[in-house]
Amino acid sequence: MKERILSEFSSRFGGTARCWSSAGRINLIGEHTDYNGGYVLPGAINKAIVAAIRPNHTQTVRLYSLDYDERAEFGLSESDLPERQWARYVFGVCREMLKRGGHVDGFDAVFAGDVPLGAGLSSSAALESVFTFALNELNDNGFDLFELARIGQATEHNYCGVMCGIMDQFASCFGKEGQLIRLNCKTLEYQYFPFDPKGYRLVLLDTCVKHELASSAYNRRRASCEQAAAVIRKRHPEVEFLSDARLEWLEEVRAELSQEDAMRAEYVIGEAQRVLDVCAALERGDYVTVGERMYQTHWGLSKLYEVSCPELDFLVTLADKQGVTGSRVMGGGFGGCTINLVPEERYDAFLLAAHNCFTAAFGHAPKVYPVVISSGAHEL
Ligand code: ADP
Ligand code: MG
After folding, report:
1. Do 195 and 364 contact (CB within 8 A), yes or no?
2. pTM of the model as a whole
């Protein structure tokens, strides 16, 4: 990919340029935990966006997207917002860097990637991070990795209209080969855990459906979580967020909660424990426990949190029947991908069954994305 991008750079702008890469991400476990002050466990993957970038000592940015075969050109003032959506990610990164007192020289860039778009692997964070990382180095800005992740997040908020958390940009910036990162969404403390599943493969199956996650469904779950936390807090003041609570404490107050709020809380509190269990299991290389917790998360999301859908439940049930070690929906739910931890000897049979059975049931095949945990943003 690097050669293709450099050759395109040379024919458009002449000469050569430095190249950077930044990756998409998966989240092994820890779903709907971020807004409950809990943990997530993401890692960067071997699908990335690569950019060749060279300062041009003007106040103008000239971009070429190889994948879209489109150009964009813009200045660096707030009023220079480009038309094209993909260019807004880069513009936003420049603006957020400037707002934080950084320097951004105009530049020429060519970029392309293989992170599937809109599949839940966060191609947008990869795009932001490759530019935050490169522009930080090219302009000697000295922002640390956390600040770079925040610049990416603020880009989504302020220039792309996506009110995301910090996980995606965090994973793109901090990712390391063979390591997952447990991030505490309340304190932003983080710790690396080894992910080296010998004899297993990690693969995502994309249902290619997105049932309308009316933002009302999401807001309603957030409200349930806040309500449950508030009721538990009356007896246990240390419960700032729902993830701080224990299951016993939920039982003490269950009668004071609606059935729906109690179900949501049971999932969230269980999920907090499952992330810890998975991290302990990773440290001893116990992938059977990792897989069990993935299934538990899935059925918690399906039965208690009620954010699954028939396509996702179908794939997870099939995975179980095919001897897959762990399987669950990844991301907010109502469609998107399942993430699967598959013993090597079951891999081909599982993919074949998924293709045939899913097609028979839903009329189209799931897309398949094998992934390996790899490094995040870096210069090539
Ligand atoms: P995702 O879940 O993959 O992050 P988003 O909708 O948040 O999905 O981001 C996808 C958007 O990011 C695309 O519509 C495009 O604007 C931009 N993008 C991602 N990858 C590329 C790429 N390879 N080339 C150009 N733009 C890209
Ligand atoms: Mg995105």
Report:
1. no
2. 0.95
Where exactly are the structural domains of the chain?
2-195, 200-371
For ligand 1, whether the C-beta of 310 sits within 6 Å is: no
**Mind listing the pLDDT tens digit for each residue in 156-185?**
999 998 888 899 999 999 999 999 999 999
Closest CA to 54 of 9, 1, 119: 9
Q: What CATH number does the domain located at 2-195 have?
A: 3.30.230.10
Ligand 2 centroid to residue 205 C-alpha, Å:
18
* Residue to mutate (ligand 1; options 49, 71, 123, 204; most atoms within 8 A of CB): 123
The 8-class DSSP code of residue 290 comes to H
CATH for the 200-371 domain, from 3.80.10.10, 1.10.10.10, 3.60.130.10, 3.30.70.890? 3.30.70.890
For a mutational test of ligand 1's pocket, the pick from 86, 91, 155, 172, i.e. the residue with the most ligand atoms closer than 8 A to its C-beta, is 86
> For residues 27 and 10, what is the distance between their CA atoms, to the nearest angstrom?
37
Tokens, residue 184:
């505490």
Instruction: For 50-105, write each residue's pLDDT tens digit.
Output: 999 999 999 999 999 999 999 999 999 999 999 999 999 999 999 999 999 999 99
Q: What is the DSSP letter of 2?
A: H
Distance of CA 332 to the CA centre of its chain: 10
261 is catalytic: no
Low-confidence ranges of the chain (pLDDT < 50): none
Among residues 108, 168, 244, 261, the one annotated as catalytic is 168
pLDDT of residue 217: 86
Q: How far is CA 200 from CA 65, 75, 296, 346, in A?
A: 35, 48, 19, 9
